[in-house]
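>> Question from a student workshop board

For tomorrow's exercise we were told to take the sequence and the ligand below, predict the bound structure, and bring the output to class. My setup keeps failing. Could a helper post the expected result so I can at least see what it should look like? The ligand is NAP.
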Amino acid sequence: MILQGKTAIVTGASRGIGEAIARAFAKEGANVVICGRKQETLDAVAATIPGAVLPVACHVGRAADIQRLIETATAKFGQVDILVNNAATNIAQEPVLQIDEAKFDKMVEVNLKSAFRLMQAVAPGMCERGWGSIVNIASISGLRPQNYGMLYSMTKAALIMMTQSYALELGPKGVRVNAICPGLVQTALSEYYWKDEDKLAKQMRTQPVQHLGQPDEIAGLAVLLASDRGSYITGQAIVADGGRMLASL
Ligand SMILES: NC(=O)c1ccc[n+]([C@@H]2O[C@H](COP(=O)([O-])OP(=O)(O)OC[C@H]3O[C@@H](n4cnc5c(N)ncnc54)[C@H](OP(=O)(O)O)[C@@H]3O)[C@@H](O)[C@H]2O)c1
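>> Workshop helper replied:
Here is what the output should look like for this input. Compare the format with yours to find the bug.
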């Protein structure tokens, strides 16, 4: 129970990696506020997680929704100690020359500005209390460009730099900020890469750990970073990709 007494917000926790992180946090004793866009889906997920779980519908691309999320979390649990910026989208898997401005703005709003808004909202309280941990879910696509994935890679690369910048300034106030860079993990977001057997086999040919990553394998790392077990770690972008990036060396 290494997160006993802490309150965490996990965005995009109605399925996939965010849901696994919320479950792992609750198992470690944290109060967990989960968000996604649909209240019914969140209610259904919350009902399956033992512990203090508060489902709050919130579109992370909307400032008013984020404000409501923070207010609801604070009204219920008093404060926010841990923030996981996990919600993200990928609406523009296409050649760079086809990308239009509307997609650029939307990707920045959902994948990047959301993290900025949430960190701006919760970090002051963390600094005042002298303890906080922020975990931003980036991607190995934020470390290497992906064909037809410019906007996704760009937002993840920027999220890593945001992580390092906040870590530098907030560290002296007791707040650690880290990023996790998953490789391929079996979720709805990435199904294009693993549903088809041939595509999956191609992925696995260059991956030393010979299984498709599971959300729980990212959640364990999030627990480490969120808790005092990770007390000497800040400003890092930790890769969890089964060794896939080694293939590019
Ligand atoms: N899966 C991978 O291979 C992989 C690899 C590297 C990095 N990642 C990163 O891991 C994180 C989680 O991805 P995942 O694979 O678990 O995806 P996923 O299964 O598609 O889950 C995404 C979650 O985010 C929520 N969400 C999407 N748009 C939202 C919005 N505008 N506002 C609030 N919630 C929103 C979704 O709920 P609703 O749709 O109900 O709103 C859902 O709960 C993302 O940051 C992703 O970039 C994933």
